[in-house]
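User: Lipoprotein signal peptidase, Campylobacter californiensis:
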Amino acid sequence: MHKILFKFLVVFVFVFLLDQAIKLAYVSGYGRYEGEFFSLILTYNFGVAFSMFSFLGENLKFIQLALLVAAFMYLLKEREILSSNTTAVGLIFGAGCSNILDRFVHGGVVDYVFWHKWFEFAVFNLADVMIDLGVVLILWHSFFAKKSKI
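Assistant: Predicted structure for Lipoprotein signal peptidase:
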């Protein structure tokens, strides 16, 4: 279990620090970029995906923090899930904690990537991409783990 927790912590810390470093650059006045496919702009999201639940205001960060703590406690109890998806869980939790820290420090999540080629998409950040990647890895693992048992 120690190796699993160490691997989880390495992934968690890497994603958390990288995401916070990029956000710090934008908050500190990093320049804008206007491209054909995407733009780099500074914006704050006071809700969750697509600004949903922004009506919860300050309570949202405490709800999200409680959900992350509860999920981690569950994963510590259900060690098989954590051990079979260590990297993915580290990605999700590192990114999630980085976004929650934004809420405490900046009042909202720091977002900066705006995709606008073919369609306009919500503004997002590296943490959002890492959460999506973690979910894809879990689904990928689940699909192939079940397939190999048949």
